[in-house]
TrEMBL record:
Pfam families: Cons_hypoth95 (PF03602). This is 16S rRNA (Guanine(966)-N(2))-methyltransferase RsmD. It is an enzyme of class 2 (transferase). The keyword RNA-binding does not apply. It comes from Bdellovibrio svalbardensis.
Length: 192
């Protein structure tokens, strides 16, 4: 596992043994960051179910302003901390929250994120529940984009309240879906 682009480009993340983690592949990560390339600079990012911190660190490498890493698994939290330390990521550019993601989304009261990454554990079919929680969370604002990975066979709607899926890519056993607020989609259509 490595960082693809930006200031930490080419750096390997720490090797680990953890059956509960299946990191986002470089192929999926490349597609995702190509979509976000004009939005990532100076963005406030959340890496939900951060696992190794892979996506959040990639965002920080590409000049995201701040990343909140959210994870409840102690082993994952340790790996994320090790990766941040290994790459010497400035402590003022991130925060680690040891909390269940659904609880985090429900309790969140801060400023909305610009970009949210969500990669729920592949052993649990949680993507639908995450999207339901995100649709009513203060974490999701009018200009937020959310990228979520889900298993091909699990339930995922095209719409959750005012959140609309605007992109879906098939990777065999999983999908990468992108959601935004319906007003952002309408604004984009009006400009075309």
């Amino acid at each position: 596992m490595r960082i693809i682009a930006g200031k930490y480009r080419g750096h390997q993340l720490v090797a680990f043994k953890a059956d509960h983690i299946r990191p986002t592949t470089d192929r999926v990560k490349e597609t995702l960051f190509n979509k976000l390339q004009f939005d990532i600079g100076d963005a406030k990012v959340a890496d939900l179910f951060c696992g190794t911190g892979n996506l959040g660190i990639e965002a920080l490498s590409r000049d995201a302003r701040f990343c909140t890493f959210v994870e409840k698994n102690p082993k994952s939290l340790t790996i994320t901390r090790q990766n941040l330390e290994k790459l010497k990521v400035p402590p003022g550019s991130y925060k680690i929250v040891n909390m269940d993601v659904i609880s985090f989304l429900k309790a969140y009261t801060g400023e909305a994120f610009d970009i949210i990454f969500a990669d729920p554990p592949f052993t649990e079919k949680m993507a639908h529940d995450v999207m339901e929680a995100a649709s009513t969370s203060a974490a999701f604002g009018p200009n937020t984009q959310l990228a979520i990975e889900s298993q091909a066979k699990e339930r995922m709607e095209d719409r959750y309240g005012s959140l609309v899926r605007f992109s879906k890519k098939d990777y065999g056993d999983k999908y990468l879906s992108m959601f935004c607020h319906e007003s952002a989609l309408k604004e984009e259509e009006d400009h075309e």
